[in-house]
Amino acid sequence: MPHFAWERISMEQPLPGHPISIAAATGLGDFIAIIKNKKGAGDEIYLLDHANLHLGWQKKGAFEHAAVCSVQYGLGRFFIFGIDAKNNHSVVASSDDGGNTWNQQKISGSASHYDVAAFSSTEGLVTGRDGAVVRTTDGITWTQITSPSGSEKKVFSLQQSPNDQLGFVVVEASLKKRDGFFLVDDFSQQEPLFSTDGIT
Amino acid sequence: MSNSFSAGSGEFLIYQGKGFAYHYAGVETGFAYSVTPAQNSAPHFKATQASTAPQIKILDVITCPIGQRTAWVYLGKDLKTEHSLIIYSGNRSFFVADASPTALDNPIIAISATMVATPEKENSTGNALIAIASDGTAYMASTALSF
Questions:
Q1: Nearest chain B Cα distance for residue A38, angstroms
Q2: With contacts defined as CB-CB under 8 Å, which chain A residues touch B62?
Q3: Average pLDDT by consecutive 10-residue portion of chain A (200 residues)?
Q4: For chain A, what is the domain count?
């Protein structure tokens, strides 16, 4: 059994509150945390750089004109998803330099709370609470695609295999009953993998 | 080849390459499973082993190089004590190890692996885990020399 000796990192700049969302850069160690702005302005973006942990959390701007739904990492980029309630659409900000600079753009379609993501080495999928799914292959352009689960079911968890033959793995659930696991090939068909009820 | 896929506060499948071995950790059930596809019938899967980690809610999972191996590291929460737990997984076994620094007022909400300089050897690096508590406090554990 491994033994890990944990030590608290002394920081010059602590995070000024509890984050509403946080994401880690896989394999890199950087973290992005989002702090709710209580004054009604854009939610604040903070970066913890793995190479300068002692500096602590550095503010990297604000998520302007929208409320943050989630922060994600994939395709070598951080992404912040949010909703522009005034104009009823979703927006995404991305950073390809570890969270130092951000570019924000509109996502086509109606507003959705995008907060469940899956990334392979070549593409990313993010789903909203209403079943909407957006996809990117370049980390820049996000395109809304048809949800495999239909609008009547909530996508509970979304995952992606790196093996192209296996396509996408979607865990879905209705609002009242778990439906188990489904493998989805290009969102054109669904194959049940197994039911959680059958594994004890 | 090994990859992990986390998906917010959902469940997790971990892909382990040519053998198509998967680990599954369920949030609601508190169990973790090892899952492999049935012979010559992918993509149909069957469960092959249940874990011994009940009463734990899985929050996140990452892969982390530990020495010459790649371990799956789960972030979990003990549903009885509400303490955060770091759970390490071998090939088909799961075990909870070293609750520190998780017996804190603020739970751990994010983990990641990174490369850090090793103080024991000059100009060398090793792997480390970084854990972030809900108040932004960060903790680090070196893994290269202790597994």
A1: 16
A2: 24, 26
A3: 69 92 82 85 89 92 87 91 90 91 89 81 76 83 67 49 43 42 42 34
A4: 1
What is the pTM (predicted TM-score) of this model?
A: 0.72
Chain B contact present for A173, CB below 8 A: no
- Whether A4 sits inside 8 A of B129 (CB atoms) is yes
**In chain B, what are the domain boundaries?**
3-142
Q: What residues of A are in contact with residue B46 (Cβ under 8 Å)?
A: 194
Residue A87 lies in a domain: yes
Note down the domain range covering A44. Answer: 1-112
CB contacts of B25 in chain A (<8 Å) are none
Query: Residue A177: inside a domain, yes or no?
Result: no
* Assembly ipTM: 0.75
DSSP string for A111-178: ---EEEEEE-SS-EEEEETTS-EEEESSSS--EEE--TT-TTSEEEEEEE-SSTTT-EEEEEE-SSSE
Burial (CB count within 10 angstroms: exposed 0-12, middle 13-18, buried 19+), residue A197: exposed
Q: Which helix (H) or strand (E) holds A49?
A: none
The minimal CB distance from A26 to the residues B20, B62, B138 is found for B62
- Domain assignment of residue A100, yes or no: yes
Residue A184 included in any domain: no
